[in-house]
């Protein structure tokens, strides 16, 4: 229950702060992120990170599917 309360509170605070910042600030942040994403060094770093984590992501995903199946079996589903 604490998690739900914290989540709702966090979303509410984020909403209020976001609406106060307004559209102009949103556009500034979006432009900065777009510029960073267009930077060749950033693109290269993202590609390297993607290649290096691909195997780990697959193993973790497969493990989650296996764990979900085990939970379902134990629950009688």
What descriptive keywords fit this protein?
single chain, 77 residues, mainly alpha, 2 domains, 2 helices, 94% helix, flat
The arrangement of helices and strands along the chain is: HH
Provide the residue-averaged pLDDT. 85
Radius of gyration: 20 Å
Strand-residue proportion: under 5%
The dominant shape is flat
Structure, described:
This protein has helices at residues 2-38, 40-74. With 77 residues, it is an all-alpha fold. The model has no long low-confidence stretch (mean pLDDT 85). The chain contains 2 helices and no strands. The chain folds into 2 domains: 1-38; 39-77.
Q: What does the secondary structure layout of this molecule look like, with pairings?
A:
Elements: H1 2-38, H2 40-74
Brief account:
By secondary structure, this protein is mostly helical.
